[in-house]
Amino acid sequence: MYDFEYHKPGSLADAVKLLSADPDARPISGGQTLLPALKHRLNKPTSVVDLSGIAELRGIKREGNKLVIGALAKHVEVATSPEVKAAIPALAQMAGTIGDTQVRNRGTIGGSVANNDPAADYPSAVLGLNATIVTDKRRIAADDFFQGMFTTALEPGELLVAIEFPIPEKAGYAKMRNPASRYVMAGAFVAKTGGAVRVAINGAGPGVFRQTEMEKALTANWSPDAVAGVKQDADGLNSDIHGSAEYRAHLVTVMAKRAVANAG
Amino acid sequence: MPQVTLTVNGKTSTVDVEGRTLLVELLREKLRLTGTHVGCDTSQCGACVVHVDGESVKACTILALQANGSQVTTIEGLAKPDGTLHPMQEAFREYHALQCGFCTPGMVMSAIDLVQKHPDGMSEKEIREGLEGNLCRCTGYHNIVKAIAAAQEVMHGRAQSLAPAAE
Prior knowledge:
The complex is a heterodimer. Chain A has three domains: 5-49, Uridine Diphospho-n-acetylenolpyruvylglucosamine Reductase, domain 2 (2-Layer Sandwich); 57-166, Uridine Diphospho-n-acetylenolpyruvylglucosamine Reductase, domain 3 (2-Layer Sandwich), CATH 3.30.465; 170-263, CO dehydrogenase flavoprotein, C-terminal domain (Enolase-like, domain 1, 2-Layer Sandwich), CATH 3.30.390. In chain A, 34% of the residues lie in helices and 23% in strands. Chain A is built from twelve helices and twelve strands. Chain A has helices at residues 12-21, 34-39, 75-80, 82-87, 89-95, 101-104, 109-115, 122-128, 142-145, 212-220, 224-228, 245-263; strands at 5-7, 25-28, 47-50, 60-63, 66-70, 132-135, 139-141, 160-166, 170-177, 184-193, 196-202, 209-210. By secondary structure, chain B is of the alpha+beta class. Chain B folds into two domains: 3-77, Roll (Ubiquitin-like (UB roll)), CATH 3.10.20; 87-155, Orthogonal Bundle (DNA polymerase, domain 1), CATH 1.10.150.120. In chain B, helix 3 crosses helix 5 (141-155).
């Protein structure tokens, strides 16, 4: 790892100031992705801005028909939160399967969503639940936020503050993990919110995406059988030593079926 | 040079570090606590697991500066000053839950956190799933799981002493 300066601001305003003043500064929260990336020298920040002391980024609370989760919420906190378990049990269940115990004790929802790793779990929940990303500057709809592999609508220096999840009638998640790395090979998050069905696929493509044919099928008939006949096009999906695009396309349908079954 | 003040196994130290210094480097190279191992250095193997403010974390994936002000427990901090082993250490010995021993410090630290988080006890399956972040290069998982199953009974006060391992 190259050396860098370390800052730990106490307020959101101070963090934004530090990040805006230096285009080569990087924010860090749990660091479970950033630190491995820095060890590989994939990134050379001049300074690292530790967000963990910022109270404005904390908290999990129910606000009417929304669940608002602060960017600093660790995976273990989302997995065990009574508010999350009551409002969106599929989200708590997902959080409890990210990485391993030690990663869940450090990694945060804000970090995972802002990083937008194609094999990450949270992006499919954010997209499937039609969540809103709240930053220090604006509110961004999930459909506009994710822009492909490791790319989001966040501008340099802009910080993710919280995520607002509308509370669905039904939601479910299923994933196939790589047996060695445990990263997602293909995952599906299905949700019915205010009568509208959304299906978000992670792991299979270069970024999380909506499977609109499955959404139509589930709108007509909410059941695992409804998606069983919907084939995912392999074109554009990831192909690597762990699985071909065709295999991942097959997994998308299987995971969508399981996600609907999990949603009940 | 930045400084980190933290309490490791009950002893408070202030150490000069670089921004990039990892907690595991501070423990091993500055404090000479070499019981915490570095296996993969890529957050996968769990040989470096320590407790930071009571939570198990991979010490290779946290900056020393991120641990400033925290309470850290390493494998060296488990036994009592008179040498009496922690019930989990005792169970690893009784159940021969180690072969080469490289993964053992991380396994023990993860196992203690796991048992503490499950006051109602864990099934064998739950123990195995809970150890997802720890790899044993000898593949000696069976006895590790048996040791944790036995130790949880002592740690939760359901057994006075460790059940002996089968002959």
